[in-house]
């Protein structure tokens, strides 16, 4: 026993001497539970240790409708979130919302909108002063966080509007602003517009968004926009894809547009093919000016006001069928799709047709909700194509 004690004392002396001379120190090891063990014990463990990992996902956004003419969603801007309603517009590339600097005395329309206040947003970031002046909308660029459903888009550059001079176009607009889903080649704010930034930040899985518009008059919900993919539950049969012909817009070729006159005859327009722009911002089916009167006459419509035509609401379910051929496939639309019901204080419900001047050059048409509400539409940015399918 004495020999063992002497050996331990000698060993301790030698070890300490070597450790001191070589700067080697012994540190105690403490056994801790693994992250997996902690996560099993406490499902909120990852949040407590503040580990954040980006997981790309798909996001299904509910659209609300206003008199069959607008399909809009609700977003929050800044921190704390300021609530706005926005239209997802495939003919625009940029995002814009009205600013608190928009004078209600000069622009009464701003008195009817939610107004953005950068001064109360802790997530607002100052950028170099840059004016914005597009289509009668005047303002400046700004940068803040946008929350949409479960998506949090940080540092998005958009326009805050201080003046609206194009009252004819915007005075009937119910939503506060617009989020553009067009190609960024037309962007005036930033190349990293809303959808492109979702992709860059890996917030969604695929460079695809899909639109489902609901004409059900018994609900204020107007459908969905699905960011990052396709919702099969809305689709009946196959999707027909056609290429984008001009990457400034979601522009494709339409092979033919025809109106059924009776059981044996139809009147055809665009029989040699024509270009169309897809427009999720309105109900309008825009046609070249020389066709406006003819098409409206075929559906028994009469001039109502400023290039818009109306039909008796009692005839909506009896109106001629319209056939639009895209990708060598016929898509049929009935009166309930191409007629927009609007409330008028003096005359009650007015039924307006979707057919009016496209206001586009070179004979280009536009297809808005009057057509898009009859199909499921998917916009594929990666492959530069658009797909159409019949609805279930």
TrEMBL record:
GO terms, biological process: proteolysis
Domain of life (superkingdom): Eukaryota
Disulfide bonds: 313-351
Entry GO MF terms: aspartic-type endopeptidase activity
Gene3D superfamilies, per the entry: 2.60.40.1960, Acid Proteases (2.40.70.10)
Peptidase A1 domain sequence ranges: 71-389
Keywords: Disulfide bond, Hydrolase, Protease, Signal
Signal sequence annotation: 1-19
Cross-referenced InterPro entries: Aspartic_peptidase_A1 (IPR001461), PEPTIDASE_A1 (IPR033121), Peptidase_aspartic_dom_sf (IPR021109)
One annotated Gene Ontology cellular component of this protein: lysosome
Active site: 89, 279
Database matches in PANTHER family: BETA-SITE APP-CLEAVING ENZYME, ISOFORM A-RELATED
Family to which this protein belongs: Belongs to the peptidase A1 family.
Annotated protein name in UniProt: Lysosomal aspartic protease
Organism this protein belongs to: Melanaphis sacchari
């Amino acid at each position: 026993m004495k020999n063992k004690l002497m050996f331990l004392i000698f060993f301790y002396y030698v070890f300490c001497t070597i450790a001191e001379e070589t700067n080697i120190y012994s540190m105690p090891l403490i056994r801790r539970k693994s992250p997996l063990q902690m996560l099993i014990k406490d499902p909120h463990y990852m949040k407590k240790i503040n580990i954040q990992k980006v997981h790309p996902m798909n996001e299904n956004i509910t659209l609300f409708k206003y008199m069959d003419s607008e399909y809009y969603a609700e977003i929050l801007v800044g921190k704390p979130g300021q609530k706005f309603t926005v239209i997802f517009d495939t003919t625009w590339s940029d995002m814009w919302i009205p600013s608190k600097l928009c004078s209600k005395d000069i622009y009464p329309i701003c008195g009817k909108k939610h107004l953005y206040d950068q001064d109360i947003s802790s997530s607002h970031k100052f950028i170099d002063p840059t004016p914005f002046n597009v289509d009668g909308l005047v303002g400046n660029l700004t940068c803040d966080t946008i929350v949409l459903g479960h998506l949090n888009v940080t540092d998005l550059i958009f326009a805050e509007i201080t003046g609206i001079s194009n009252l004819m176009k915007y005075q009937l607009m119910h939503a506060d602003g617009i989020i553009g889903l067009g190609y960024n080649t037309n962007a005036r704010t930033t190349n990293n517009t809303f959808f492109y930034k979702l992709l860059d930040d890996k917030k969604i899985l695929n460079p695809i968004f899909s639109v489902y518009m609901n004409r059900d008059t018994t609900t204020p919900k107007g459908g969905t926009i699905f960011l990052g993919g396709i919702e099969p539950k809305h689709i009946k049969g196959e999707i027909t894809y056609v290429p984008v012909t001009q990457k400034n817009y979601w522009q494709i070729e339409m092979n033919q547009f025809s109106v059924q006159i009776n059981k044996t005859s139809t009147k055809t327009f665009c029989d040699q093919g024509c270009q169309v722009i897809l427009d999720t911002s309105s109900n309008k089916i825009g046609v070249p000016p020389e066709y406006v009167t003819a098409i409206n006459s075929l559906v028994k419509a009469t001039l109502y006001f400023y290039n818009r035509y109306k039909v008796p609401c009692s005839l909506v379910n009896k109106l001629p069928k319209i056939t639009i051929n895209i990708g060598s496939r016929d898509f049929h639309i009935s009166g309930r799709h191409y007629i927009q019901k609007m409330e008028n204080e003096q005359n009650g419900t007015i039924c307006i047709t979707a057919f009016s001047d496209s206001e586009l050059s070179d004979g280009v048409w536009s297809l808005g909700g009057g057509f898009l509400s009859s199909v499921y539409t998917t916009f594929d940015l990666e492959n530069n194509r658009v797909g159409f399918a019949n609805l279930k």
